[in-house]
Amino acid sequence: MKPSAPDTPEISPLAGKPAPPEILCNIARLVTAYYSETPDPDEPLQRVAFGTSGHRGSSLERSFNEAHVLAITQAICLYRKRHGTSGPLYLGIDTHALSEPASASALEVLAANGVRVMIAPGGEYTPTPAVSHAILTYNRRRRSGLADGIVVTPSHNPPDNGGFKYNPANGGPADTRVTGWIENKANEILRGGLKAVRRMPLARALRSGAVRRHDFLRAYVEDLNQVVDMDAIRGSRIRMGVDPLGGAGVHYWPAIAEHYRLDLDVISQTVDATFRFMTVDWDGKIRMDPSSRYAMQGLIGARKRYDIAYACDTDHDRHGIVTRSAGLLAPNDYLATMIGYLFSYRPNWSAAAAVGKTVVSTQMIDRVCSRLGRKLYEVPVGFKWFAAGLQDGSLGFGGEESAGASFLRRDGSVWTTDKDGLVPALLSAEMTARCGRDPAELYQAIEQACGRPYADRLQAPATPAQKSRLLKLDARQVRSTTLAGEPVQAVLTRAPGNGAPIGGLKVVTGHGWFAARPSGTEDIYKIYAESFRDKRHLREILHQAQDIVDRALRGKA
């Protein structure tokens, strides 16, 4: 199935409207299926499969069931033992319906394997960045007995999804060598009927002494002033609004407002596993995506009440910035704005600290880096590629076009090595406070200096076989020496920054580019494109890119 042409997108009639009852997930059925349905390890769609950030699926489709969680957790225990990771494991969960039962299953296995597990007191939900922060805080100045973590989350995916990801001792998402080993071992355990799984009843696990409490919320909130200038925000008395979108940071925002005495309105503290309070995303599904104007209609409609407003996704590792002047800021625009601001207002950062971006992020970042005199580090999709650089300070910033980013503390040391939705949100308030202009106005100044980009992204369903063919795209499938009337300057299958395969193809000209790749978490493929000329030029790029992808899907070189 072809993606929609850029000028005729297939937008659901429900998009941007309140979720009607008929599309709400049946939570009882979903949780029942988690325990009652057994995946078939001989069926590719029912195996453990780590995408760009963990294993994701739905219990209703036998792609995220108790068997998966038991097998993955046992594989992680074996990986820890194999690599001498003997410190505590920090376990975080988000507000998806499958996260509670999955975390219980994981605790049963972790405790039975003698792993010391740190969980939030009182069943508190835990954002992804709070887990990364906890790992790094514990491991600081340690060389042995290191901590790691698990976050039970499918990120912003629909309510019927579950997810499970592993963060090793560097605090960031595990790289492909780690996830490949865990994935293979977990599938081996699945094929063996879970006989290799060590497990104890949950009640016994909670009494065993292996499971302990850690106040993720207090530790994270009290440290925020080290990464964002909270004094400047408070002193400016700007009025802010935040919508947690029913996610894991729902109780973090009131704590932030109280601790730093901010004029911050937490618009909703509702947690409902159906996410019935969301407006529907572009394709008619409920998706807690803070970068989607359809999913963010509630906050967009309230923007005039605030100087700056923001939201985060379900595990709070993504951000969405809503300005009074322009509404929801496009993720790529805000990445460029953050970079321009941070490298101008962080005097204690190393002059050698580089900027990290993915191959599908805007070329505006390249232009901003050039003006700043900063090195650009371009990597494949996946925040794992930034973890080492953020940890050692060689990267000041790492960001993805899907509204995920993190950056260093104000003193130039590591903050988190996983995506952090809260600090980019709070940084938008710092920008507004210190510059007297909101991020949209700051971005307009960047466009005046660097040119205006026109961008679009297409996506369509793709079978595993089609996704496999897309992964193997190479320069031979770009027969034309021009793209949209311009000479092709580069055809990339490996990222310029680290030489790693990009899992697809990127074609670059003087005033535009496109990249095509299969999704690592959904059965779809995506084409990203950008032009620094005009919309017509962008459409030409997209149509030519689509032709290349269509040929690949048909298996033609």
UniProtKB/TrEMBL annotation:
Entry EC no(s): 5.4.2.2
Give a GO molecular function annotation for the protein: phosphopentomutase activity
Q: Which EC class does it fall in?
A: isomerase
InterPro entries, per this entry?
Answer: A-D-PHexomutase_a/b/a-I (IPR005844), A-D-PHexomutase_a/b/a-I/II/III (IPR016055), A-D-PHexomutase_a/b/a-II (IPR005845), A-D-PHexomutase_a/b/a-III (IPR005846), A-D-PHexomutase_C (IPR005843), A-D-PHexomutase_C_sf (IPR036900), A-D-PHexomutase_CS (IPR016066), PGM_a-D-Glc-sp (IPR005852)
Q: Does the keyword Magnesium apply?
A: yes
List each coiled-coil range: none
One Gene Ontology term from the biological process aspect of the record? carbohydrate metabolic process
Q: Where does the record place the Alpha-D-phosphohexomutase alpha/beta/alpha domain?
A: 48-189, 219-323, 331-446
Q: Does the keyword Glycosyltransferase apply?
A: no
The cofactors it requires, by name, are: Mg(2+)
Q: Which residues form the Alpha-D-phosphohexomutase C-terminal domain?
A: 498-544
This protein's UniProt keywords: Isomerase, Magnesium, Metal-binding, Phosphoprotein
The record's section on NCBIfam families has: pgm
Q: Which family does it belong to?
A: Belongs to the phosphohexose mutase family.
Return the protein name. Phosphoglucomutase
